[in-house]
Amino acid sequence: MNNKTKGFSLVEVLVSLVILVIGLIGIFNLHLVAKRGSFESFQQTQASFYAIDIINRMKLNRSQLAGYAGTYTGSLSAPGKSCDVAVGGNAICTSIETRAWDLFQWEQSMNGAGETKGTRSIGGLDAPTACIQISGTGDVLVVMTWRGIRAVSDGAASAGDFVKSCGTANKRRRAYSVNTVII
Questions:
Q1: How many Å is the maximal CA-CA distance in the chain?
Q2: Which of 22, 52, 80, 111 is most buried, by the most CB atoms less than 10 A from its CB?
Q3: What would the pLDDT profile of 87-135 be if each residue is shown by its tens digit?
Q4: Taking the mean position of all CA atoms in its chain, how far away is CA 46?
Q5: In a domain, 64, yes or no
Q6: What stretch of H or E contains 175?
């Protein structure tokens, strides 16, 4: 008797499904890792943008350079006078008023005030702290720290004392610093 059957048995189908499911789980995990990496990269790009932004603001207001030094977390209150020509106003501001406006606007930007959902700011960096150090010769060090997605290591642990003191030390802290000269 010749008993040839064609097709798949139930065991073969189940083995194929198990292999397919294992592959799909791997693809989903890869997708999650890629999303996290993309967000971390975006946060670093944002930090570099904010550091360069305040440096450019300081260059435009050199007479107040020493007044920009400090630690900023988003707690500055709005200055009495808006010195932003982009808003459409043509207010004439002193250099002190310009410095106050620059710092306020910069803090608001790094905290995400430009992008909101309801009353919550959703743009900017996650829990940012910015520190600016200025020496008498025009050396400027701008440090941006923020909270990363996952705990890997402290981004400022191996840096200099000023960078280490910026932000809260923990395994999720990320740090970006720019050292330049404004003359």
A1: 104
A2: 111
A3: 556 678 899 999 999 999 999 999 988 787 888 778 889 999 999 999 9
A4: 5
A5: yes
A6: strand 173-181
107 CB burial (10 A radius; 0-12, 13-18, 19+): buried
Domain encompassing residue 156: 38-181
Global pTM value: 0.81
Contact between 174 and 148 (Cβ < 8 Å) = yes
Residue 33 in any domain: the answer is: no
Residue 29 lies in a domain: no
For the purposes of burial, counting CB atoms within 10 Å of the CB of 80, is it exposed (0-12), middle (13-18) or buried (19 or more)?
exposed
Number of domains in the chain: 1
* 142 falls within a domain: yes
Sheet holding 173-181, edge to edge: 70-72, 129-134, 139-147, 173-181
Amino acid making up residue 135: S
Torsion of CA 66, 124, 39, 147, to 10 degrees: 60
